[in-house]
Amino acid sequence: MSRIRALHPQPLLQGFSASLLLTLVACNAAQPEPPQSHVADRQELVAALEQSQASPRAKKAELRRDAAIAALSVAGQPGAPIADHLPSVYREQYREQYQKLAGNPVHAVAEAPVSTFSIDVDTGSYANVRRFLNQGQLPPAEAVRLEELVNYFPYAYPLPTGDTPFGVGTELAVTPWNPQSRLLRIAIKASDMQVAELPSANLVFLVDVSGSMDRREGLPLVQSTLKLLVGQLRAEDRVSLVVYAGSSSVVLEPTAGSDKARISAAIDQLSAGGSTAGESGIQLAYQQAQQGFIKNGINRILLATDGDFNVGVSDFETLKQLAADKRKSGISLTTLGFGTDNYNERLMEQLADAGDGNYAYIDNLREARKVLVDQLGSTLATVASDVKIQVEFNPAQVSEYRLLGYENRALKREDFSNDKVDAGEIGAGHTVTALYEIVPAGNKGWLEPLRYRQAEKSAGKQGELALLRIRYKAPQQSSSKLLEIPIEAQSNAPAIAQASEDLRFAAAVAAFAQQLKGARYTGDFDLAASAELARSGKGEDRFGLRGEFVQLVELAQSLQTPSSLPAPSAAKVD
Description:
The chain folds into 3 domains: 2-94, no CATH class; 107-193 and 382-448 and 459-559, Gamma-adaptin ear (GAE) domain (Immunoglobulin-like); 196-376, von Willebrand factor, type A domain (Rossmann fold, 3-Layer(aba) Sandwich). Helix content is 31%, strand content 22%. It has 17 helices and 18 strands. The strands form 4 sheets. The protein has a 6-stranded mixed sheet with strand order 8-7-6-9-10-11, sandwiched between helices. α11 (316-327) runs parallel beside α12 (345-354), α15 packs antiparallel against α16 and α16 packs antiparallel against α17. Mean pLDDT is 84; it is low at 1-20, 25-42, 45-64 and 86-93.
């Protein structure tokens, strides 16, 4: 039973329906017989359940999830997908939605020397993966977006110089999982901005109060999260509160940030129940934001929901287009994801992209503080918009390459110079990391050489590994600016052990993300190696985030079985 209780800080058995858990245990009993220790645990669980009838009744969503976890642990399958082992009457109610993306392919420089993509500063995937692991489950592969795991952490990157809103740096080292290749890091860092330095803010809190948010990790966590932000408000800021369930309504008209008691009281009185008319809530929130619009200020909607829209317009593309149309008015949309079981991560991430905002998943109050207190400047204030990266590799130096992550941020080559093509935003203090695995010319790569290829043309700048181009727009500008930065070639790249702490740590996170998704390219470099590499790059770790990451890798190790990586998806995939 100690293993079961360790999955959650509160006892799992309190408030459980004995009949449901006994059904789950019986369901799992049909599986191959687990070790004797698990049989003893099953007997102990059954005995405890028979004495738990007087316990307070748990909420249905919590009971379904926690019951499944407990039963799987007892059955000796702690790493199995929850939904696969729920009785059919509950299985349909456990539905999380993720975007299924094919991994980036390997490219031959002789055939495709140019790589183009939009930057991404979202971090929601990391917190969501953490949630799965802390619940004793390996995440579905579709929940893992490598760039969001890497970009979750702060790094000591070069600060801006001159009139550029961000600094740019690069670093190269031998790839830890492949001695034949090199890991190229592109680092972008924007100057931080204290709360007092932020422009006046017109914020609309848009809160989902439907029945699916009636759980401890739903509306109660939303309320605690928003009150953290209220504590940061200034007199010149304005806040509105809009809610939606079966319909939408304005709970709080624009209120000065100095009136914290009134704003907090409006948040405290919220309660959950009913269906979910998300589209009408978004429309009303944009109306409120337009009503209180501050010229040259921050105008932003913060949507707090599990994304489970089921009344009115719920079509994915229609909702994305709505956010894309509204961003033209100068109002951005940030999404804060909450909840489990029915969580629509696909919608949350894509809505934020379309709305020129950022996406975070709030799995606990510490994450809420990170997003809305410690990193408030980067969450609210944009210093560069439509930021695009393009790398042109020199065929005399590089034969093959692959971009790690950013699968849903890929752009066509011609999109780079087209200012009408939307791309990502960089907030104050944001760090952005992009990693390429490249094969030096003459080393063994992934691709077989072409038999009939034509003789290579002159490669031009022999001392350059690649040319880095970055396009961005200054805030409220429609024309982009171009930066061109040559990346020097290195005849002897250092081993990963001699690289900077930041590169070592970023490489460890990238390896971990690939391992969770199937380890197609990481070979024999396993989770233990990722943990050790992360420890070597832990550094000062002021907020303890890197230490927590090492613990998560070790937790994934404990859940790993020969057939469990990658984890079969327990989610609905679109």
